[in-house]
Amino acid sequence: MLLLLSVLVLLTQPPTSWGANVTTLPQKPLIENCTLVTCSPLEIGLPDLDGKEGPLGEKEDPDIAALWRQVKALQIAFLQYKKVELFPHGRVVGQKVFKAAGFQKPFQEAQQVCAQAGGQLPSPRSEAENHALQQLVQVEDKGNAFLSMTFSKVEGRFTYPGGESLVYTNWAPWEPNNDGGNEHCVEIFTNGKWNDRPCGDKRLVICEFCALGLGGAAKVQEAGPDPCAANMTRKS
Amino acid sequence: MLLLLSVLVLLTQPPTSWGANVTTLPQKPLIENCTLVTCSPLEIGLPDLDGKEGPLGEKEDPDIAALWRQVKALQIAFLQYKKVELFPHGRVVGQKVFKAAGFQKPFQEAQQVCAQAGGQLPSPRSEAENHALQQLVQVEDKGNAFLSMTFSKVEGRFTYPGGESLVYTNWAPWEPNNDGGNEHCVEIFTNGKWNDRPCGDKRLVICEFCALGLGGAAKVQEAGPDPCAANMTRKS
Amino acid sequence: MLLLLSVLVLLTQPPTSWGANVTTLPQKPLIENCTLVTCSPLEIGLPDLDGKEGPLGEKEDPDIAALWRQVKALQIAFLQYKKVELFPHGRVVGQKVFKAAGFQKPFQEAQQVCAQAGGQLPSPRSEAENHALQQLVQVEDKGNAFLSMTFSKVEGRFTYPGGESLVYTNWAPWEPNNDGGNEHCVEIFTNGKWNDRPCGDKRLVICEFCALGLGGAAKVQEAGPDPCAANMTRKS
Questions:
Q1: Tens of pLDDT along B118-158?
Q2: Which residues in chain C are contacts of A1 at CB distance < 8 A?
Q3: pTM
Q4: Least CB-CB distance to A32: which of B12, B30, B32?
Q5: Are A35 and B11 in contact (CB < 8 Å)?
Q6: How does DSSP classify residue C165?
């Protein structure tokens, strides 16, 4: 109990900036907890503890029962505000949230905008993710949007930030064609198809945000596998 | 304990799409829990458990006390972000959140936009709800907005989606007048008054989202009583 | 236990308007809890309770363990949606969230817009807060924004709402200069510098929202110290 109180005391020092003076306790991968909380309301499966019989047949501590209610209420309120938040400039697909900025930028600035916000440019890795992006581009009605991927001269092909090979593509017919010899970036059309473009062109900015996104908002997302997918592999 | 662990194991299988592989445990109607959590900060009434005396005079489990703190902190953070989220394109009235899309659509597309977002077109059922909608229409400065209600030839009057009769109206003087013989939809003016319009006209899209909205985002909201009100009646 | 159940019964009466019929239980200042929950995911330090050994070496109640998981999951989901919400029209600095409205108003209307939303005009009290505001003004690309401060004829200087003296300033060279004799309000430039302006001018509306903001949305924020800072002093 002294250990827990000491930790709480350490955690309660007023930080000069967020993150200062915070002790990190070890934690397990938490993908399973994301599953529990992001289901639709009908799938919130919490035992009904109301001071009477619990799921285990025992009398439940009324404080735990009251706490269960508070948590359930928070989950429901949170689910409502998730829907409100995503309307109309966001889409959620599994662990990923795509959100449109409403303005256009050249690729490098677009990349920075997303990084500063704690996200990254979109890396659609499936038909479902690509379709969600397509919907956003249509709704926003501000032209095509940049994706995260760029042409790597070293690899001789398009890759995700960090160099990983593409696991899904949706190039328009005859693309990428490097028209003009300087098309190292990728845009997504309102029909969902991809086309290579010069990175200096201004395109609609959409960012993707992961449930267990890595911290450090003011840097481009770390190299490596898609953070939204990485959490799933960590589970094993 | 084995039952609970088994349920947790079942709940932690990676879903291919959200909602798969989730076991639903029985739950009571939860309106009272929404009440507990959506009050203003001054009304968050949680016992102060800090490892010492609980409200019942007993020594509290320090883990429960720590958990209470986490839940309280989440409630406070959530309340702040609710306010941030609603500014400036949203309004909350009781269980309902109205949010403006910022664009205009004909009625049928507007209906689909709201359904896909997990909400529906607004059904103001009281002066308070109507006033909140009016404020939004004024703030958005994008013309009048569609309401959910339509003229039913069968009933010979305007009804909510699903056919229920209107419980509140705020028609402008001499409206509805079916001007032109094809005014089966309803718009709300910046002064809050209603007028019937052709459904093919483009109007500002505003959607309403309920705390306990039914799932299934990609379908028009089920027929029946207002889901935001239905939760209240379920309580009894 | 009877007391707790009675409170829950009182709290579950259907309110005609939010806040009615709610009993307020006493609560401690909660700044330390905000620290616990608003850190980046890597700083969420909750003991790992999974039905086995707890941090204290004892066997944990499986219901408490399950509840910990739910709370952890909610924290993670909430952190993701915080990032999504703030992109692109918001910035968070410590306890404060700044959010831009996207439209311009004269000072008095801007003040009312923020008050009705449960916030207030921005009072940047540090370089960090001012920098966050500057970023927003740049991103919004809608001209300069009003700050909360006004010239008090009584005091003969600019003050915060309520009369407190400024603790931080960032006036542009030679400002404030009361050009025209009627410059009692303050705007912030895209370079972050301040200038005094007539209050009747229309400027971009940005509001600030505090974690423990006082209730009562439809009134201008109470006089007194910055509510975002007040919570910190209450801690002692």
A1: 999 999 999 999 999 999 999 999 999 999 999 999 989 99
A2: 56
A3: 0.75
A4: B12
A5: yes
A6: B
